[in-house]
Structures are given as C-alpha cells and as structure tokens.
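lol ok so funny story. i was supposed to be doing the assay writeup but got distracted and ended up predicting the structure for this chain instead. priorities right. anyway since i did it might as well share w the group, maybe its usefull for someone
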Amino acid sequence: MRILVVEDEKNMNRLISEAMVDEGYSTDRCFDGADAVEYALAADYDVIILDVNLPKLDGFTVVERLRAQGCASPVLFLTARDSVLDKVTGLEAGGDYYLTKPFSFDELRAVVKVMARKYTGNKTNEYQVGDLVVDTSAKTVTRGGAPVDLTSKEFALLEYMIRNKGVVLSREMIENNLWNFDYEGGTNVVDVYIGYLRRKIDKGRDTKLIHTVWGTGWVLREE
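and the output, tada:
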C-alpha cells in the first residue's frame, strides 16, 4: 500500500509517516495543500492522511479539487478541528473518514487498514488466489497451508498484486505503488522482486500464479 501524509507540523508529519512505514506501507510526505494536490494526482494512493489547517490550500479545498479531477483515493482527515460543522464539511467535500486530534496511533492504523480494505472491495483482511492466502493484517502468507516467509518489500509486492488479482500490472504501476518519490533504485528492481516472489510462491509447484504478460507487465491469477 502507498500512503500520502499531508501535515504541516513537521514533527507530527514524521511521527505519522513512521507509523505508516512500520506497518509496511510506502509513504510520501508533504506539508502544504498545493503540494498535496500535486502529489495525489501524480500517484495512485491507497489512503491520503490529510490535515485541514494547511498552508496554501486548506484540506477541504484539497479534497474538492482532487475529486473534481477524478482522484478517487480514500481521504482520512486528521485534524484538531472537531466541530460537527467541520466534520460535515469534510465529508461533503469528498472525505471518507474524519479523525480528530489528539488521536491514538492504534486507532489511526486500524482506520487506515479499514479504508484500504473498502477501497479494494474486500470485506476481510484475507485475500486468496487458488491455494495462496495473504493476510494483510497479520502479515502472513501461506500456500497450500504451508507458511511462506517474505521480506517486507516482497510482502508489499505480493499484497499489491493480490489486491489487484487478475489485473495486469505494469512496471510503472508497481514502482508507483511500492516505492515513494525519493526512491532512486535501478530500473530492473521490479523484475528482481518478481523473481524473488516466483521462487518463493511458484517454484516446484504445478500451478503457477505469477504470470508475465510480455510487453505489458505481470498478473497474479490461477490458470
């Protein structure tokens, strides 16, 4: 999952971002409303965590502009503005959830997971293709009932693929969702991690789940 954190208070931005990184999410950070619009339109975020009182553009205006330009990423308002009117304004602007400060980081993590789950249309934290089962909450993977040990980045790639099972994912789509804007890795990094997954998920099995669509990308499906 890829998260955008928009918070002008730099220490709070850092704390929220670190909490998201600890959950295994690729995280981008920005500090004003104008940059928030630019970031959100440049990448496909699973959740946008958005303050309301921001420089340049307030959070309500940010969401209105994003929705007007077709951005459907779920938006979680995280703000000290706790009046009923503010909450109504935020939700009517196009926000999906409203969490007031001070807040519990445990609650924030839980809300982000629920929002991302709703965005993908899955009603539970478990995703399945054939005999492959991925629990995005427990961060566990099994195939045929046997556990599969993955690194955090391998798990992130598999989670992205299984959330989009049956969809052909291009290299650019995978890069945009698994690595943030600061990443400066090699151009073949996606191929490398696809190879890692294949060895751990498909090697030695009659039914392959990770398929190459030549000239386009990769898809996770049972054939």
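The domain at 2-120 is CATH 3.40.50.2300 (Rossmann fold). Residues 198 and 210 are 7 Å apart (CA to CA).
back to the writeup now i swear
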